[in-house]
Amino acid sequence: MIAGVMSAGLIIGSSVLIPRIGLGAFVVLVVTGQILAGLAFGQIGVFGIVPQQLTFAKIAGAVMMIAGVYFVSIVG
Q1: What is the reported pTM?
Q2: How far apart are CA 56 and CA 35, in angstroms?
Q3: pLDDT tens, position by position, 40-67
Q4: Which label site among 32, 37, 52, 75 has the fewest CB atoms less than 10 Å from its CB?
């Protein structure tokens, strides 16, 4: 049930966001969201995975992805 609601949110969000920010920025935002969710899930240790600490390299990578969203959507 949760997956259906999330999928519907993604479809509705994409139909609203893609005309405004463009397809490239939307795809980068989706990937960035997945990376941030992976960092959060790894820190907490959900879904049966072993909790891992956030490192500087992981946070720096996430910041670079968000900067990429900025450059793709605002500057580009």
Answers
A1: 0.69
A2: 15
A3: 888 898 888 888 888 999 899 888 888 8
A4: 75
